[in-house]
Amino acid sequence: MSFDDVDRSIATFMDRWGTWSLRVSLGIIFIWFGILKPLGISPAEPLVLATVEWLPVLEPRGWLILIGWWEVLIGASFLFHRTLRLAIGLLVLQLGGTFLPLVAMPDVAFQAGRVPWAPTMEGQYIIKNLLIVSAALVVGGTVRRREARRQAG
Questions:
Q1: What is the total count of domains within the chain?
Q2: What's the per-residue H, E or C state across the chain?
């Protein structure tokens, strides 16, 4: 077996399972992290509460619970191809709030005197969402593939 054969086999495996793995991973992460919020056991709770304290309509804890269930819905929507558009739409609506602490609370998101180059643990938690956005773009880019295959087949 040549290097090219091995390389082709690995690349085929990655092409076949990569997007599915991203979709399932996004689903698991959103469901898992989301459900912690209404259960009152999320390590992100203080950050979320501080971020939403100025919002009208609900008390901060109410927003925390709503955001948690919103994330669970995002995650559940990523698990099924038919609901990917819903997942992407819900995620887009969530993004503003996700990155808001970087701007609204730089003292929490960055080490003192080191804005924007040295994030705190909370800042790193927020910035890693760039990877989630990129993964969602890859997964969202597959929405029409299945439709195209059905029309061609």
A1: 1
A2: CCHHHHHHHHHHHHHHHHHHHHHHHHHHHHHHHHHHHHHCCCCCHHHHHHHHCCCCCCCHHHHHHHHHHHHHHHHHHHCCHHHHHHHHHHHHHHHHHHHHHHHHCHHHHECCCCCCCCECHHHHHHHCHHHHHHHHHHHHCCHHHHHHHHHHC
